[in-house]
Amino acid sequence: NMILLYAFGSNSGGQLGISSTDDKELPSIVGEYNGILSSGGSHTLLIIKTGLLYVWGSNESNQLGLGHREPQLAPQINQLISDKSPFLAACGWTSSFVLSDGEVIDLQTSKTLSFPMPIVQVACGLRHTLAVSSWFSRYVASH
Question: Which terminus of the chain has fewer CB atoms gathered within 10 Å of its CB, N or C?
């Protein structure tokens, strides 16, 4: 089943995914998607059931993981991690991480972060990231 994704609010970085940078007071349809969302300072990540990662919004820090710093005003598939199967996304102010098979991938660098055991959850704040291992030991990475 496809689900309509709506967006509204501030849109200076294109984070609403509506092909413009106009702010929206009322909900606007982004498209038909069924997946898991995460939003950062001015960017958004969406992982759909097939494992494709859609990204859009501000990209001045390469937080969309596209290999360039151009903003994306509409959802784009991140091809750089197409060989992975992400199932969870987390966004900080200008950072983005996805979780795939127990590994945390930093989209800014396209590198897999090293942890002593598989990770089952990742979350971001303004300038920090938390990861939970399969044994529920906590690790904190600072930005």
Answer: N
pTM value is: 0.89
CA distances from 19 to 46, 89, 95 (A): 16, 22, 22
Q: Are the CB atoms for 45 and 53 separated by under 8 Å?
A: yes
- Residue 11 φ/ψ, nearest 5 degrees: -145, 30
CB atoms closer than 10 angstroms to residue 82: 11
Among 78, 61, 65, 48, which residue's Cα sits nearest to residue 13?
61
- pLDDT (tens digit per residue) in 54-87: 999 999 999 999 999 999 999 999 998 888 889 9
Backbone angles phi, psi at 81, to 5 degrees: -120, 25
